[in-house]
């Protein structure tokens, strides 16, 4: 069960994949991917912190904007490591059958 092809999330994931080989001088996504998975992860972390700050502040509009940045950078980070939106959706679907507490308890210690 993946996102509908015309959903914003599916279009975003497709755009990220399409920019994988693009000119880094012309595409922010291509620039991030060219810098490697570690840089993509670092940028995701920065965006996540910004979203947390806005959540604490309580500014709904700013949180919405930062959340969109987080989703974008999450997908870029995952793409840099070969993890697709379909992979993420499959994992979410697998987890639907059990409660969050059950799922967390079943994870290996680590």
What does this structure look like?
With 110 residues, the protein is an all-alpha fold. It has one domain: MazG-like (Helix Hairpins, Orthogonal Bundle), CATH 1.10.287.1080. 72% of the residues lie in helices and 0% in strands. The chain contains six helices and no strands. Helix 1 crosses helix 4. The radius of gyration is 16 Å and the shape is globular. The two termini are 29 Å apart. The mean pLDDT is 92.
Q: What's the quick description here?
A:
The protein has 110 residues and is mainly α. It has helices at 8-18, 28-35, 37-57, 60-80, 85-95, 100-106. The two termini are 29 Å apart.
Q: Keywords for this structure?
A:
110 residues; mainly alpha; Helix Hairpins; 6 helices
Q: What is the element string, with H for helices and E for strands?
A: HHHHHH
Which residues form runs of ≥5 with pLDDT under 50?
Answer: none
Quaternary structure type: single chain
CATH-defined topology: Helix Hairpins
- Structural class of the helix and strand makeup? mainly alpha
The percentage of residues in β strands lies in under 5%
Helix content bin: over 70%
Average pLDDT taken over every residue: 92
> Termini separation (Å)?
29 Å
Main sheet makeup: none
Global geometry: globular
What is the CATH superfamily?
MazG-like
Looking at the overall shape, the CATH architecture is Orthogonal Bundle
Number of strands: 0
How many distinct folded domains? Answer: 1
Rounded radius of gyration (Å): 16 Å
Please report the first level of CATH classification, the CATH class: Mainly Alpha
**Helix tally?**
6
